[in-house]
């Protein structure tokens, strides 16, 4: 990874001042420092029917440390969810995102909370990126009232209205036409926002995706379709499911960009580029080359269709958190110890959130009937015997 | 002249049907009989004790029984194919283990993630005279294929004037609650398909039934949707004959004789109902339990005969009560047996909400709900 310093005096003076600041253990100057640094992405972008953005990404210490902290938090959260599932506190299905965190943080760095995001069921970290709290995540996973969907959705159905996170969908590929619909509404409201509709390499073969793509291209909708290609659709490798695993080219007449999804800065650059493109000239497909360490879900060991060497190879070479750590250390933005402290802090936060989430109660039984229809419709619902327990749905 | 021609045509049609039926009978090893009380294992349910007995039997679970049925189907018909998502390594429920190794990748193969494509492709394959056995990974995912099933598969023979048909198509899908499935791994969509003339919907209750019924479905000259209760894949263990046998479609089975009330159900729900029957027995209520097996075209005669005997009927299924298949059974029974009925038809079904996550125990038609309804109906 080539590094280049573009400013002269300010960085040198920062170097001179550094021993003083570290001696005084002042952390704040580093974590709020916004002096720009330029970094090159790991690999250049590959584009289809458009001009690829530049490989040089502008960032700053604050952003890098935020990336590090957020990704460490997400990683810890997913691992904690793994143990909770094995302890049977989380039931049902649990699809973990560890390994793919770079996309969640990189995308957030390039957009605002007014832009809409919609994704499939691997949504814990995307929800966190949108401003969700750990308590909401763990409570929802355990089906408690304090969860973001009041305990009624579970792992696959996280939503956050105030930051335009449209969830959390179980049926593969079904969220993409929804995302294009959101983009349609955004075009109407003319508020310069876009929608990121995320899907996986398995969903890339669904027919409804192409239907949505055609409509978006026809009507110039500000829709960005993001294929999070972790190379395995559950247990099926991409080359066995798709004639053309070059998902960024699948749009044919729709431009596409292939990005290293394990490099948060490349993701940020690509999302910024995509947002500008979508607002100006309609839909674009982003293919994020990423990897998940866990299996498809908690009932999948993840090693029957890929070798352990492959998984550990990716972890050693392309791990997103390690990449940012190396970047931070090589630019002397923080010391090893400080980064380890951040990780310890994050671990504690996660443990605290789990404790609080465990205290939250399960939803009331009457809540079974709430929100089936809109409020005030006065629809009746009754139990199996129809004679008692007749309730007007709230 | 015209009338003579019309009668002649009718006669010709009847002859054709008779020939077809004879051919079907010749293919079958057994004629299923309606027998009452069978054997009850701890989890196994009673099954028809007919010619199925010939040959050795082994104690296996539901997914192994289905696996055996598929092995037999592919062995006996060189133009049979099994395909779906992840079937070649054995499938997520292991129903297709060993098939790819034994019959090759040309006959047992994976498809990409596209239900509409899978079923449409299956229809085409069946239209060319092959036996297409498509697997939809969970019944909850069958909806993208709904158009293909309803508009293409069900109406093919009808709209082509019998020139073409996709009778070789069988669609298998695991359905039903499993305890922790949530919204999209627990649905029971059988009611949607029961509304479509042209296809058959079959649901087995146990391993022995599943093997026989699946082989009948595969060999039936009509497109069939075969729902497998996923809760029973490992839980239900039964003696299943190792040879090739078929059980008749559109024949319901009385699996428990009784005189006070008739209970009608299918699939995994029957084991719950049987427990309720045993409890009701302690209170002196004698329950007759009927397994519908085929939902459309369903065996009205058996159910009607039973209701004429008992005068009361209770239907139970996991799908939501409004618009569920229980409504059809209820309406038909009331039509034919109105004066005989001693009490309103009771339906103990899932509630009218999306299949919930944490609320599953409240949603499900449990043994106690059924017991309450039995007592309320008997004491009406």
From TrEMBL, chain A:
<keyword id="KW-0786">Thiamine pyrophosphate</keyword>
<comment type="subunit">
    <text>Tetramer of 2 alpha and 2 beta subunits.</text>
</comment>
<feature type="compositionally biased region" description="Basic and acidic residues">
    <location>
        <begin position="306"/>
        <end position="316"/>
    </location>
</feature>
<protein>
    <recommendedName>
        <fullName>Pyruvate dehydrogenase E1 component subunit alpha</fullName>
        <ecNumber>1.2.4.1</ecNumber>
    </recommendedName>
</protein>
<dbReference type="GO" id="GO:0004739">
    <property type="term" value="F:pyruvate dehydrogenase (acetyl-transferring) activity"/>
</dbReference>
<feature type="domain" description="Dehydrogenase E1 component">
    <location>
        <begin position="69"/>
        <end position="365"/>
    </location>
</feature>
<dbReference type="GO" id="GO:0006086">
    <property type="term" value="P:pyruvate decarboxylation to acetyl-CoA"/>
</dbReference>
<feature type="region of interest" description="Disordered">
    <location>
        <begin position="297"/>
        <end position="316"/>
    </location>
</feature>
<comment type="function">
    <text>The pyruvate dehydrogenase complex catalyzes the overall conversion of pyruvate to acetyl-CoA and CO(2). It contains multiple copies of three enzymatic components: pyruvate dehydrogenase (E1), dihydrolipoamide acetyltransferase (E2) and lipoamide dehydrogenase (E3).</text>
</comment>
<dbReference type="InterPro" id="IPR029061">
    <property type="entry name" value="THDP-binding"/>
</dbReference>
<dbReference type="Pfam" id="PF00676">
    <property type="entry name" value="E1_dh"/>
</dbReference>
<keyword id="KW-0560">Oxidoreductase</keyword>
<dbReference type="InterPro" id="IPR017597">
    <property type="entry name" value="Pyrv_DH_E1_asu_subgrp-y"/>
</dbReference>
<keyword id="KW-0670">Pyruvate</keyword>
<dbReference type="InterPro" id="IPR001017">
    <property type="entry name" value="DH_E1"/>
</dbReference>
<dbReference type="InterPro" id="IPR050642">
    <property type="entry name" value="PDH_E1_Alpha_Subunit"/>
</dbReference>
Automatic annotation (TrEMBL), chain B:
<keyword id="KW-0496">Mitochondrion</keyword>
<dbReference type="Pfam" id="PF02779">
    <property type="entry name" value="Transket_pyr"/>
</dbReference>
<comment type="subunit">
    <text>Heterotetramer of alpha and beta chains.</text>
</comment>
<keyword id="KW-0560">Oxidoreductase</keyword>
<dbReference type="InterPro" id="IPR005475">
    <property type="entry name" value="Transketolase-like_Pyr-bd"/>
</dbReference>
<dbReference type="GO" id="GO:0003863">
    <property type="term" value="F:branched-chain 2-oxo acid dehydrogenase activity"/>
</dbReference>
<dbReference type="GO" id="GO:0009083">
    <property type="term" value="P:branched-chain amino acid catabolic process"/>
</dbReference>
<dbReference type="InterPro" id="IPR009014">
    <property type="entry name" value="Transketo_C/PFOR_II"/>
</dbReference>
<dbReference type="GO" id="GO:0005759">
    <property type="term" value="C:mitochondrial matrix"/>
</dbReference>
<dbReference type="Pfam" id="PF02780">
    <property type="entry name" value="Transketolase_C"/>
</dbReference>
<keyword id="KW-0809">Transit peptide</keyword>
<dbReference type="InterPro" id="IPR033248">
    <property type="entry name" value="Transketolase_C"/>
</dbReference>
<protein>
    <recommendedName>
        <fullName>3-methyl-2-oxobutanoate dehydrogenase (2-methylpropanoyl-transferring)</fullName>
        <ecNumber>1.2.4.4</ecNumber>
    </recommendedName>
</protein>
<dbReference type="GO" id="GO:0007584">
    <property type="term" value="P:response to nutrient"/>
</dbReference>
<dbReference type="InterPro" id="IPR029061">
    <property type="entry name" value="THDP-binding"/>
</dbReference>
<feature type="domain" description="Transketolase-like pyrimidine-binding">
    <location>
        <begin position="60"/>
        <end position="235"/>
    </location>
</feature>
